[in-house]
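Summary of Year 1 activities. Much of the first year was spent building the evaluation harness for sequence design. The harness presents a backbone, in tokenized form, and records the residue chosen at every position. We chose the following record to illustrate the format because it has been used consistently in internal testing since the harness was completed.
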């Protein structure tokens, strides 16, 4: 059977147990890891946040502890959206069915655009559309927070990492780790960067400032 090009379109049973699956494959470290990531984003009390591919809204619920500003989530999985709406209530949280590759009406409105484990699963022209949409959504001085695989040479990694990319991940993820993401982001107008590394530098939170 041909390998699926992308694995970020998650629905059905996998969507229902997405958070549990992440805990399991991370050796029960995911919860602590994601809490640290959200702290590293340095969210201020009035920040407005747009989450691209918000999934179960686990991250929105955590970000909600740091801001009273509006938090909007976009996703295209009905199962994810159903869980997210049930899980993360509050008048400052709104979750919409929306494809992040398509334009949307929220221009220059957000302090933060967050995209977590989503960008690697798109072909490059779609990645470019997503980056453009993020840039246009941000206020001047806003932050694009990309949590995803870091850039690295897969050949230099151990057998476990190689196996994850060969059998567990999609071919687009292997392409993504070779991209000079800061250079790409600069082409879209982002000016300065800040990085936080996790899991032996295999994962990176890259904060790009507009
Ligand atoms: C790997 S999950 C990550 C979920 C969440 N960001 C997290 O870190 O827990 C990828 C998410 O992106 C969503 N997604 C995939 N393609 C999308 C698209 N074109 N537009 C919006 N969401 C999409 C999936 O439905 C899924 O919820």
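For this record, the design step produced the sequence shown next.
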């Amino acid at each position: 059977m041909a390998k699926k090009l992308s694995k970020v379109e998650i629905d059905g049973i996998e969507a229902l147990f997405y958070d549990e699956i992440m805990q399991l494959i991370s050796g029960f470290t995911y919860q602590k890891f994601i809490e640290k990531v959200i702290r590293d984003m340095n969210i201020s009390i009035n920040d407005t946040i747009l989450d691209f591919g918000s999934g179960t809204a686990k991250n929105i619920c955590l970000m909600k502890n740091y801001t009273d500003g509006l938090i909007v989530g976009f996703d295209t999985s009905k199962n994810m959206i159903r869980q997210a709406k049930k899980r993360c209530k509050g008048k400052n949280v709104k979750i919409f069915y929306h494809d992040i590759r398509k334009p949307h009406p929220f221009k220059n409105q957000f302090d933060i655009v967050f995209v977590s484990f989503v960008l690697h699963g798109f072909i490059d022209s779609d990645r470019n559309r997503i980056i453009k949409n993020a840039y246009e959504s941000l206020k001047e001085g806003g932050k694009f927070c990309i949590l995803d695989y870091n850039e690295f040479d897969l050949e230099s990694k151990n057998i476990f990492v190689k196996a994850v990319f060969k059998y567990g991940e999609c071919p687009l993820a292997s392409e993504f780790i070779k991209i000079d993401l800061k250079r790409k982001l600069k082409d879209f107008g982002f000016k300065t960067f800040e990085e936080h590394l996790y899991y032996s530098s295999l994962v990176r939170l890259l904060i790009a400032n507009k």
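The pocket of S-adenosylmethionine is lined by residues 8-10, 53-55, 58-59, 74-77, 80, 99-101, 116-118 (CB under 6 Å). Quantitative recovery figures across the full test set are reported in Table 2.
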